[in-house]
UniProtKB/TrEMBL annotation, chain A:
Species the sequence originates in: Levilactobacillus senmaizukei DSM 21775 = NBRC 103853
Lineage: Bacteria, Bacillati, Bacillota, Bacilli, Lactobacillales
Domain (ABC transmembrane type-1): residue spans on this chain: 89-299
Subcellular location: Cell membrane
Name the UniProt record assigns to this protein: Phosphate transport system permease protein
PANTHER family tied to this protein: ABC TRANSPORTER PERMEASE PROTEIN YQGH-RELATED (PTHR30425:SF2), PHOSPHATE TRANSPORT SYSTEM PERMEASE PROTEIN PST (PTHR30425)
GO CC terms: plasma membrane
CDD domains with a match to the protein in the record: TM_PBP2
Record-level Gene Ontology MF annotations: phosphate transmembrane transporter activity
GO biological process: phosphate ion transport
Main subcellular location of this protein, as a coarse class: membrane
Transmembrane region(s): 26-47, 89-113, 125-150, 156-179, 221-243, 280-299
The family this protein is said to belong to: Belongs to the binding-protein-dependent transport system permease family. CysTW subfamily.
From TrEMBL, chain B:
Top-rank taxon: Bacteria
Quaternary assembly: The complex is composed of two ATP-binding proteins (PstB), two transmembrane proteins (PstC and PstA) and a solute-binding protein (PstS).
CC per GO annotation: plasma membrane
InterPro entries: PBP_domain, Phos-bd, Phosphate_ABC_transporter
Full protein name: Phosphate-binding protein
Membrane topology: Lipid-anchor
Protein family according to the UniProt entry: Belongs to the PstS family.
Main localization category: membrane
Organism: Levilactobacillus senmaizukei DSM 21775 = NBRC 103853
UniProt GO MF annotations: phosphate ion binding
Domain annotation PBP: ranges: 28-259
Any GO BP annotation: phosphate ion transport
Pfam family, one: PBP_like_2
Function (record text): Involved in the system for phosphate transport across the cytoplasmic membrane. Part of the ABC transporter complex PstSACB involved in phosphate import.
């Protein structure tokens, strides 16, 4: 009698492993919860501050997105503050798209060389080099841009050297490693038998790369490019040092312009929390946040589409 | 097994030693008072240097100095988040600040001068010409007696104290046209030094051999001319407190304003002392001669 009761208790008691398991589950779940709370907190904070421009200061959203004068300290003839963010939005997009356009061929070319043409040398030399590029802090890129790219741009194209062109040059180098390494992963994911089948049908290596490997890897390559664009869009310091920070509609590639991030970093220390000037900057931050959300969505969409094809 | 024990023992000993060390040092850094001063980057070097000297002379105190900009300094002091707010501007000039809650302590005077790239070939401008240059009425240095170079404007960021002072007293209240903006004086100087045709403005202490400072209406940007208001582009540097300062804050502000610091540190770091001024200027820019001069 007694022994069966004991046995029952022993059997019903949680074992050490079971307790460990629930404890582990609790820890990992609370880590997840913390991260979600932080993300929600940041989005909530930026949104509440950013929306204050429209809710408290009664700036119309349409004016904010389409007007071309950025002068939060000044009120225009109608008594509305001049917070037209269009120059910055255009500047940000222009510089992002241009640097992606320049970086993509180089990145894909490098990835093809590393994967298809010369995997041995690629892995030995190019891999460490691209990884090194990732590790260089953005202020170093900015400094090189300021002391090398800007004077060269000025000498070759005229103007003051500060502008979208210099920004593109700096950003292109910055996003190159990201796009390259993700493109490499995309090419690696193409099954080996695709290549074997193509070669067996008598295609040359170039035909195989161009008609089979790159086609099959397209969704992955697009993800890589969008990832690079997301990085370019959010980059602040290096761009701020070479773009000139003039809140003007970019009239040419060598005229000083500004991006959302460059206006944010130069302006935030000179405004008072809760004032219109400060809220307007938060609105810019909100635009930035929404845009990176959009980039993330695009990456998701591409990923889903790619999976269906495969 | 025994090796593992050994490592564990070592870790425990290290932790105990570190803990003990922290306990010992705690006495020095926490037993006394500490205050925080935040704000203007133009004033930061002075407050930092004075803070170091003060804590060196008064053990057990700590003066924590941070930058962030004039706007940050004033908003932090208004919220009571810090003990001292450093500002290049009168609190009344900054939007969103309730100046009547804050107490002004002037600790230095800063003269600001236009600087140009050396290739421009201009050393003097009339005030009217300066205004034309910054409002975009004139686009080439040739038109104001210089070389045939396009004018490249470089501004400080909107809301910067240096820019506000320059526009108020240098451009006679007019606003510069939208142009490049940089967020620090050091950056402005290096860009002006390397960009042909560039013009900007910095505090006297930032002028060096790489750039050319400009005389205005034949008045040279010198400290003497600032003291008599012959050179009009200058501003006070303020330490703001919320209400009358107490305790360490009061002692520290007294220290910065003391003759010893004003004669040595303030001048060594390229500022002028308010004691040197023969004129006084209020928040509206009204200048009055100081009596007894």
């Amino acid at each position: 009698m007694k022994s069966t009761q004991q046995l029952e208790r022993q059997l019903k008691r949680h074992s050490k492993a079971a307790r460990l398991e629930s404890w582990g589950r609790f820890i990992s779940f609370s880590a997840l919860l913390l991260i979600v709370a932080v993300v929600v907190g940041i989005i909530g904070f930026v949104a509440s501050k950013g929306i204050a421009t429209f809710a408290t200061n009664h700036v119309s959203l349409w004016d904010f997105l389409t007007e071309k004068t950025w002068n939060p300290n000044i009120k225009d003839a109608h008594g509305n503050p001049e917070v037209g963010a269009l120059p910055m939005i255009v500047g940000s997009f222009l510089i992002t798209i241009l640097s992606a356009i320049v970086a993509t061929p180089f990145a894909i070319g490098t990835a093809v060389f590393m994967n298809e043409i010369s995997p041995n040398r690629g892995a030995k030399i190019l891999q460490p080099v691209t990884e090194l590029l990732v590790g260089i802090p953005s202020v170093v890129y900015g400094f090189i841009g300021l002391s090398v790219v800007v004077p060269v741009t000025r000498a070759v194209f005229g103007g003051s050297g500060f502008g979208i062109l210099s920004g593109t040059c700096v950003l292109f180098v910055m996003i190159l490693p990201t796009v390259t390494s993700m493109s490499t992963d995309a090419l690696k994911a193409v099954p080996r038998y695709y290549r074997e089948a193509s070669l067996a049908l008598g295609a040359t290596q170039w035909q195989t790369i161009y008609k089979v490997v790159l086609r099959a890897a397209t969704p992955g390559l697009m993800t890589a490019v969008v990832f690079g664009m997301a990085r370019a869009f959010g980059e602040a310091l290096a761009v701020q040092m070479v773009i000139g920070n003039a809140a003007l509609m970019p009239s040419s590639l060598v005229a000083p312009a500004s991006t959302l991030t460059s206006v944010l970093t130069t302006g935030i220390g000179n405004t008072v929390m809760g004032s219109l000037q400060n809220n307007a900057l938060w609105s810019l931050a909100l635009v930035l946040l929404l845009m990176s959300l959009v980039f993330n969505l695009i990456i998701r969409l591409i990923g889903r589409k790619g999976r269906m094809q495969a | 097994m025994s090796k593992k024990r050994w490592v564990q023992g070592l870790i425990v000993i290290a932790l105990v030693a570190l803990g003990g060390y922290a306990y010992q040092t705690r006495q020095v850094s926490h037993a006394g008072e500490s205050i925080t001063a935040v704000g203007s980057t133009a004033l930061q070097p002075l407050v930092e240097a004075a803070g170091e000297q003060y804590t060196g002379e008064h053990l057990g105190t700590f003066v924590n100095v941070q930058g962030g900009g004039t706007g940050t300094g004033l908003s932090q002091i208004q919220e009571g988040a810090v003990q001292i707010g450093n500002s290049d501007l009168f609190a009344g000039e900054q939007k969103g600040i309730k100046a009547n809650q804050l107490v002004d302590h002037r600790v230095a005077v800063v003269g600001i001068t236009p600087i140009v790239n050396k290739k421009v070939g201009v050393t003097n401008l009339s005030t009217a010409q300066l205004v034309k240059v910054f409002t975009g009425e004139v686009n080439n240095w040739r038109e104001v007696g210089g070389a045939n170079l396009p004018i490249v404007l470089i501004n400080r960021a909107q809301g910067s104290g240096t820019r506000a002072t320059f526009e108020q007293f240098g451009l006679q209240g007019r606003r510069s046209k939208t142009a490049q903006e940089q967020d620090s004086s050091g950056m402005v100087r290096s860009i002006v030094a390397t960009t042909p045709g560039a013009i900007s403005y910095v505090a006297f202490s930032y002028v060096d051999k790489t750039v050319q400072d400009l005389a205005l209406d034949q008045v040279e940007p010198t400290e003497e001319n600032v003291t008599t208001n012959a050179w009009k582009i200058w501003s006070y540097e303020h330490l703001y407190t919320k209400g009358q300062p107490r305790g360490l804050t009061a002692k520290f502000i007294d220290y910065v304003q003391s003759a010893a610091v004003q004669r040595t540190l303030v001048r060594q770091l390229g500022y002028l002392s308010p004691d040197q001024m023969t004129v006084d200027r209020d928040v509206h820019g009204q200048v009055t001669k100081i009596g007894g001069e």
